[in-house]
Amino acid sequence: MRRFVIGQAKNLIDQTRRHHKSLRLLSLLAASDSAPVLSSPRLFSSSSDMSGSGSDSSSSSLPVTLDSLNPKVLKCEYAVRGEIVNIAQKLQEDLKINKDAYPFDEIIYCNIGNPQSLGQQPITFFREVLALCSHTALLNESATHGLFSSDSIDRAWKILDQIPGKATGAYSHSQGIKGLRDAIAAGIEARDGFPADPNDIFMTDGASPGVHMMMQLLISSEKDGILCPIPQYPLYSASIALHGGSLVPYYLDEASGWGLEISELKKQLEDARSKGITVRALAVINPGNPTGQVLAEENQREIVDFCKKEGLVLLADEVYQENVYVPDKKFHSFKKVARSMGYGEKDICLVSFQSISKGYYGECGKRGGYMEVTGFTSDVRAQIYKLASVNLCSNISGQILASLVMSPPKPGDDSYDSYIAEKEGILSSLAKRAKTLEEALNKLEGVTCNRAEGAMYLFPCINLPQKAIAAAEAAKTAPDAFYCKRLLNATGIVVVPGSGFRQVPGTWHFRCTILPQEEKIPAIVNRLTEFHKNFMDEFRN
Amino acid sequence: MRRFVIGQAKNLIDQTRRHHKSLRLLSLLAASDSAPVLSSPRLFSSSSDMSGSGSDSSSSSLPVTLDSLNPKVLKCEYAVRGEIVNIAQKLQEDLKINKDAYPFDEIIYCNIGNPQSLGQQPITFFREVLALCSHTALLNESATHGLFSSDSIDRAWKILDQIPGKATGAYSHSQGIKGLRDAIAAGIEARDGFPADPNDIFMTDGASPGVHMMMQLLISSEKDGILCPIPQYPLYSASIALHGGSLVPYYLDEASGWGLEISELKKQLEDARSKGITVRALAVINPGNPTGQVLAEENQREIVDFCKKEGLVLLADEVYQENVYVPDKKFHSFKKVARSMGYGEKDICLVSFQSISKGYYGECGKRGGYMEVTGFTSDVRAQIYKLASVNLCSNISGQILASLVMSPPKPGDDSYDSYIAEKEGILSSLAKRAKTLEEALNKLEGVTCNRAEGAMYLFPCINLPQKAIAAAEAAKTAPDAFYCKRLLNATGIVVVPGSGFRQVPGTWHFRCTILPQEEKIPAIVNRLTEFHKNFMDEFRN
């Protein structure tokens, strides 16, 4: 990694001298190879700094070396919090001390779907209930009625009544508190119009641990494959790598708005089988991440039939189910689609992942979510239960929030009007931001960008000039990473290179969230547009 | 598992006819093998029911079968939430409906260190801060000052000021919020008298995910071994099994109060090496779980020297650091011991695990904790950081609580007196309960029990009569599991068989928490004593 930082710094020195203010960054990057010379001496001693000067590998006789680590860990990549984010964090630290040293005032994190970090406010009702459940003594104070909505107080009592001893500080059942799972199952039923069983719900600390659990269950060796969309959310490639399986790619068709073709699934499945890989599951992300498409119901039916016919578990990442921005598309859960086709418990193995981190709620830091596990035999489910038990239970605050997002205030409730206003304010603003950013991206030279029908991202394709590709090669970095680092350096905007999500070889993309607050979007568009023009002027063939 | 339930039911029918009320349990257990005949038809459809009637494995053509699962998952065992707890949960459900059907009124869960589930109240100051951080609008209301202590308000502001945008709903840095890690590092320094670096802290959802992360890092195959105490907390055996490594046992000496002998470590290390196993780490649980011993400082020095000499990572499970009940013992962190020996960053790889679930706080459901990682090279630490990043971050409520338990109110703070009263009330009561239960156990025929110097458990040795062992064999169950099931059946008390923790072959134990509220202890002692007498009368040779 040390080589990367040196190479990157030298590359930047060679190529961006005309940006006077960039020199600060260059010295900052170069300094990481020698003694820190900056005003912030700790800048490079963070453990997230891969070239850190803290405990130096060269001078150590310690027993643990890279060579001795689990090679699956070494193989794993997670670009959403990778190299560019590390650079951004250091820039942000240095910005505090050296305000005038950069051509921007702040770092804007568009690398990750983390709405509240960019100013989105939490839904008041959810936080009222959470506070009351955190400090239950409040419920016995009359002053509380002046501070909280009446339905938040009612809901807190209802939740506490479902917890043995009202103990929100106790480990729960390994799948989560039964009463909260009842609320989630009722919410799924209301959404789908088909029954949901609280015993099918496994509550998790966000969706990620659920995905890991299923990968751990299904993958024994590299002979076990999981069909994943390309581009994909890197949780999938990371968790398949950590569990030692094979990622079997299927390519989404960018030209048709990231279309998911059954013929492509078949082709890739057959190809994997011909290599001796047993494909265990198909992962589908709907709405798509990083691609933002919303699947048509007819397409979902074909996918269900494909899984049934081929004996695949359908892993349905449905964490963006509330994030649909276009009138011509609607979210349908795979469970609803399967049940509407007449397929029940004994026909198809289906796991649906949901998270409190996304939607209009965006409660990323609370780490809540669940997976609805249907179609598994009781002995297999007992193994899932055991895996859940080894980590005891997911956190109760996250469990409470997961129950709330699946059973929000209803018409007539004290909070209902303000809840709806907050929810619709967030979703309509996200739709506007998605549209504005998409249009701006499509105006850039050599850039095409599908619309974000849903989710929280745009994933534009950049037709990079040969000169830029050659410069990236010289800097030993992927061309889209080269572009993204230059973007960060010039604007403070953090995006993730398409190579972190995988993409059709020879194409280059980046993922950019639509999450900066609405009033900041025009400035972001201006900075992006100016940067892109300068970049193209520098590298145009 | 179906066979187990049938076998157990038949066994119980054969052997406990004279307990009239037990017949209810027998029919309940027997019913699980055919159509439910109980008043609660859902009793056996829970997914945690291994003989569930929900989706039946025999009638299925579903693609996922036990044979096709990851064998590491199948191999993993976690007795703390295993078979006996499943039976107890069903009994508890049935008790609600059939109050008079059992010889007890309630199920008392002594299987797991879950204090608040048994009535322990949370520390008020911690919950005040948590509520204010959950619903930050409260901080702007004047009525809040009448409801909260002034230092909880100050602390909430201080915490919010450390979170970018005061966004407690945002993903944090992968290691946890920097300001909270500062507070934890300061708490470690105050505890140890040696410096601690916030960049060494990785905040986790309880201690378990930290242990998993280290196992994932260190284990590549079954040729990688981890030295673990026997008896051990089953998180270790489970996570080593899940990551495909080898558990290298070292036996604690029950006769000397669960002494940890360096000669035993050496013997087992050499034995493992002779089998081609590369031993990567030594896990030490101090205070001990399930064994409750507190290591002497001199013993800890020997352990540190052993790890240094043999090139082992020292995995120090120090989650019970606040739970010491005897005046002649004191907790010393391994980091303090190592530093006091003059060993620094470059001398020894040391990971210390801490959790908010234990101590006097017992905030199990909040899932907070951290590991302090010292002595690893920067490139290895970058891999740990990557593993943390794949799950984004631990939950912020747990992070906040972890910072609070390491920096509680100080003399002069508004909450200080009530905080100290609550803390000391809990710890002194736990000491009393430990003593009472230990004395009661030592009075039982054929039972010897070391004192609980610390932690939350007693681990008595039961000298089971041959007739009982033969009956257990006939029932195809381990003798201590047989005893524990009979105990549950007769008293409603849930304990965990020693076989779930491993033990010297031919010895039998169970683990019982000291956590039931003080006023319940006499009744528990009576029930336990009466049961044991009846059991011995039935099986005495």
UniProtKB/TrEMBL annotation, chains A, B:
Keyword line: Aminotransferase, Coiled coil, Pyridoxal phosphate, Transferase
Superkingdom per UniProt: Eukaryota
Cofactor: pyridoxal 5'-phosphate
Pfam families per record: Aminotran_1_2 (PF00155)
Keyword Transferase annotated: yes
Entry keyword annotation includes Coiled coil: yes
Enzyme Commission number(s): 2.6.1.2
Sections of the chain in a coiled coil: 420-447
GO MF terms, alphabetically ordered: L-alanine:2-oxoglutarate aminotransferase activity; pyridoxal phosphate binding
Pathway annotation from the record: Photosynthesis; C4 acid pathway; Amino-acid degradation; L-alanine degradation via transaminase pathway; pyruvate from L-alanine: step 1/1
Sequence ranges assigned to domain Aminotransferase class I/classII large in this UniProt record: 165-527
Subunit structure: Homodimer.
Homology family: Belongs to the class-I pyridoxal-phosphate-dependent aminotransferase family. Alanine aminotransferase subfamily.
UniProt name for this protein: alanine transaminase
